[in-house]
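Sample pair:
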Amino acid sequence: MRDAFRDHVIAEGIAAVDAIKETALAEPKSYIDAVLTVYKKYAKVVLDAFVSRVEQTLMSCPTRSTNRAIS
């Protein structure tokens, strides 16, 4: 489950960055906003779904996946 979630978040991050790549140089804030939007969305998913038993590794998936997407 962790790997599938991580792969999905990476794909979403890459898609979000690809969607704004034409304007990112002229508007760098759009890049930051796109990355933060993906991060916040999936961090919330984890917190909402696993609030009673958040695993450290699952909670770190949005962070690591977002970092990988922007690299």
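The chain is about 85% helix and 0% strand.
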